[in-house]
Specification:
Keywords: Carboxypeptidase, Disulfide bond, Hydrolase, Metal-binding, Metalloprotease, Protease, Secreted, Signal, Zinc. The chain is about 35% helix and about 15% strand. The chain is of the alpha/beta class and about 425 residues long. Helix 6 links the parallel strand 7 and strand 8. The radius of gyration is 22 Å and the shape is globular. It binds zinc ion. The site of zinc ion has 3 residues, from loops.
């Protein structure tokens, strides 16, 4: 009898401990998303004041002028913010009344009944990190002569940082390197990386695309953050490294070029926290080490983000144009033309600083300035309607297929310039 009672007690205690130690999903109940459109530089500067405030989360970046900026605001700060906007005569609308409701809605619509079969890929649902790795590992089994994976590091929480190489024939070829999800919540980025992998490896129409070029694709740079957005906090952006007050570093402010110069924060709770030092994060170190060990071979670098429909190249930290501005602009426009031809989606092409506000410490600028990769781009993929970071899973296919047309243009250019040596721009 006593033993039974003790057993029950123990079971309750265990359940209680499981309940308190198992992470509870962060709720965004009452959080609103405002869309503010600064009409002058002064108005844009006013908005920048809120960037470091933990009650404010900039879903899209502040752009020069006349472009809407989406800002999520915590319940306690909304009244004051609305007063501020009214007083300053800033133009705004509320685009999401309650973020939690929106997330719940999407969860119920997108919650999967079954896991993706191990080794398979899907573009009708968002895949978890282990599913993504299982797929690329399966490709190395099914296509051993062209696909290999390599673990280029371990995340802060110990997950594999895995890249897939796609190549045939000679070694030491020119490399196209594509990475995604350094920002955890930008869920549309990994499917784009996966679709490129899928088309190259599994679509026999494209076998020529890895004969003269080696592709290296890193589908989830920040797997800890990515998993955290699935399990705990849908809108987590940073890595998951621990700190004294707030966890995580913005990986795209953590690279050692013009680190902490502009558009980055030294406050650890900020969404753009640059870290206690450049390359404090193991995830950014892994990218740096990959650049170092392939110096001279990487000809094109693409960093996939969302959201904004932007195709940006260096620099982010200075308005001085790069010496090869014309080439980068012209190539970007041709990539955009190819994307637009599919269903009319139009990207804004330009230097990051001309399209956005100044930023520094990102991988794109680092790749060009330190990595020696002349062709270096950030692609800000489209938002899902008004849904921000969580485009409905039904929007994955339209996005990945149109980007693929742009990727082909990038590929043709790299071949022309570096393989055939017949650059035409
Ligand atoms: Zn991003």
């Amino acid at each position: 009898m006593n033993q039974t009672i003790f057993g029950c007690y123990l079971q309750t205690l265990v359940l209680f401990l499981v309940a308190i130690t198992h992470a509870v999903r962060i709720s965004y109940d009452g959080y609103k998303v405002y869309q503010v459109t600064p009409r002058t530089r002064v108005e844009a500067d006013l908005l920048r004041e809120f960037e470091e405030d933990i009650h404010f989360d900039f879903w899209s970046e502040i752009r020069a002028v006349d472009f809407p900026v989406d800002i999520m605001v915590a319940p306690g700060a909304q009244e004051e913010f609305e007063d501020f906007l009214d007083n300053q005569n800033l133009e705004y609308t509320t685009i999401i009344e309650n973020v939690e409701e929106k997330i719940q809605e999407e969860d119920s619509r997108q919650r999967r009944q079954v896991r993706v079969d191990r080794g398979n890929v899907t573009f009708t649902e968002y895949m978890r990190h282990d599913e993504i790795l299982a797929y690329i590992e399966q490709l190395t089994v099914d296509y051993p002569s062209i696909a290999t994976t390599e673990v280029i590091g371990k995340s802060f929480e110990g997950r594999d940082l895995t890249v897939i190489r796609i190549s045939s024939g000679a070694s030491n070829k020119s490399i196209i390197f594509i990475e995604a999800a350094i920002h955890a919540r930008e869920w549309i980025a990994p499917p784009v990386a996966l679709y490129i992998i899928n088309q190259l490896v599994e679509n026999s129409n494209y076998t020529n695309m890895y004969e003269d070029i080696e592709w290296v694709i890193f589908p989830v740079v920040n797997p800890d953050g990515y998993e955290y957005t699935h399990t705990d906090a849908r809108l987590w952006r940073k890595t998951r490294s621990t700190a004294t007050i707030c966890n995580g570093v913005d990986g795209n402010r953590n690279f050692d070029f013009q680190w902490m110069v502009t558009g980055a924060s030294s406050w650890q709770c900020s969404e753009t926290y640059a870290g206690r030092s450049a390359f404090s994060e193991v995830e950014t170190q892994a990218v740096k080490n990959f650049f170092d060990s392939h110096r001279g071979r990487i000809k094109l670098f693409i960093d996939l983000h969302s959201y904004g429909r932007l195709l940006m190249f260096p620099w982010g930290y200075t308005s001085d144009p790069p010496s090869d501005f014309e080439e980068l602009q012209s190539l970007g426009e041709r990539v955009n033309d190819a994307i637009t031809s599919v269903r009319g989606t139009n990207y804004t092409v330009g230097t990051a600083i001309s399209i956005l506000y100044p930023t520094s410490g990102g991988s794109r600028d680092y790749a060009k300035a330190v990595g020696g990769i002349d062709l270096s781009y950030t692609i800000e993929l489209p938002a899902g309607g008004n849904a921000g970071f969580n485009p409905d899973a039904s929007e994955i296919i339209p996005v990945v297929t149109e980007i693929w047309e742009g990727i082909k243009v990038f590929y043709d250019y790299v071949v022309e310039k570096y393989v055939n040596g017949t650059k035409t721009v």
